[in-house]
Amino acid sequence: MSSSPFQGACVLSSTIAEATKRYAVVTGANKGIGFAICKQLASNGVRVVLTARDPKNGLEAVEKLGSEFGASGQVDFHQLDVNDSASASSLANFITTKFAKLDILVNNAGVAGLHIDRNALAKGTPVDWRKVPKQTYESAEATIRTNYYGAKQMCEALIPLLQLSDSPRIVNVSSSLGRLENIPSGWSKEVLNDAESLTEEKLDEVLEQFLEDFKEGSLETKGWPTDSSVYTMSKAALNAYTRILANKHPSICINAVCPGYVRTDLSSNTGYLTADEGAQSVARVALLPNGAHSGVFFNQNQVASFWLIEGPSGNSGQVTFVTSFKGHVSLWRFKMLSHPLPYLSSCLRHFRFLKLWPYCGKQVTAPRKIPCAFLVCDFAPRGLFFNFQRACVLRSQMAEAAKRYAVVTGGNKGIGFGICKQLACNGIVVVLTARDQKKGLDAVEKLGSEFGVSGEVVFHQLDVTDPASVSSLANFIRNKFGKLDILVNNAGITGAHVDRDGLIASVTAREKGTPIDWSKIITQDYESAEAGIRTNYYGAKEMCLALIPLLELSDSPRIVNVSSSMGKLENIPSGWAKEVLSDAENLTEEKLDEVMKQFLEDVKQGSLETKGFSVYIVSKACMNAYTRILAKKYPSFYINAVCPGFVKTDINYNTGHLTVDEGAESVVRLALLPHGGHSGLFFIRSDVASF
User: Fold this and answer.
1) Distance of CA 523 to the CA centre of its chain
2) Which range of residues forms the domain containing residue 86?
3) Which of 401, 430, 459 is the last residue of a domain?
4) Distance of alpha carbon 197 from alpha carbon 389, whole angstroms
5) Choice between 38 and 450, residue whose per-residue pLDDT is larger
6) How many domains does the chain have?
7) Pair 459, 436: CB distance under 8 Å
């Protein structure tokens, strides 16, 4: 028996929905950075399991995410004590039963390992940080157990579920205090720095010896850190474990990240970043695209070293090196040491594929003598130059791999502004476009000053109906970024004259059960209809044609066409046009041109059978159809259309029931779809819908 088209559509819809779902676990998530990480992951369409030791605090956090931040249904709670193997096993069983896989693990749970005199942190009181925190052996042992062994236990319990994902990620929330420069010297520093020979057994030995020396009061004489020593060692061990795990599981993207100095209970709220700002860098690493490097330490959004080799105090001056590796040239600036290493220059001949020159102004000359510098490196200094070479290459590759670029049309206000904000918060460099230059620049300024994404958003003037303007934007992107990863076609107009007061009154009446008579609210003439078609359909098409060559240079190209449920074919009366748009197998751009040409002709002659938003309906129906055509034409792209819902914006005189941020979430989710997502679909908010 053959299946019906409806049955096939249901199966497709269900399959797509499952394929695009991603699941995450965040430990220590009922407050602070953990809570904010859950919020940001959920806003990106990830289903999050928020965990906490205290069930009451955890359930209240889930309730807050739903009621205050619109994440209802996106966040589940499960009790977890990372130090209890039975608790970790219970969580793993819960995920196995409920989701059958895991995509993201964020090890955020941690303790400071200090008893802090909070009165000494009062405003206006000078702080002597040597006297404020106090460490005991019991707190030291608890900190090592939570910050390192707790995270390790979570990894061991959940990696089998992560291996079932097509884009598995582990993010260990660490600290710059765990960098090896903060360990004075000695055996432990050598062990932790020897990346090639690191093992879990060696980490156990280091931590056992640290606790033994802590108990004996011999930290300083044995070369251990003395300020915040327990926290420093726990995070240094977590960083080292990150590298071990990344080598052991090359199919999983595993990184450590310092979120910065954040105002949380852990810092007694003395940090200078908000929890949301700290969470951004963690969420960005959790959502890194496939192909990104693993086993790396991030300091907020920047790739950082695990070790900074330092020289004696009193050094001055700065040197800049130019490195060239396989055709990629980078500039590296470092502080000078007062005494050079004489053998560094001679090492050049052993690494002929890497060229290293001092850079002076605009002139680059080959070296005769290379002074030593503060060298950023990730590996033991068994050959200092070799380590510098690997660090340069790694850092350059990581910076390029992590960078993604997006264009958002109509980005100065409403949903477009919300899309720009959310993409930038996910580490995407966004080109915000608008017809009015002043409004566009004001929007960029607002994103920087109010939402902390300064430097992540740039402005370029754009009129989507002007080919010269579109071409200018394409040239700007080509010259500045060399590629494009995401295009969001958001610019749109109603294509009709709307009675503002009538619309507001009708929407209010509809809430009481009275149907809206659109013919009394909407009037349209040929000029407005032509402008609607030109902007909503041909403007988006012009953007695609101009920017697809740049998108083809990306390893994860995405096009998102912001559409409307009004463009569904059920809103078009029966007839020739509906038959053309419904015939997905034979759709062509030429047929779409014919439909719109005939529609405008009927508008001019006053022979339309429907009233109301007919221009808007037809323009969005054609945009949906073009989405399907384009997805077939470019199978390596992910190209989808989405209705963001009825959002409060200028286009509907703020009569919608969703906020701009809520509307933008569904668009951003599609813009950041992981590899393996489907293309050529229509979404209503987060759900796959029929055309």
Assistant:
1) 42
2) 17-308
3) 401
4) 19
5) 38
6) 3
7) no
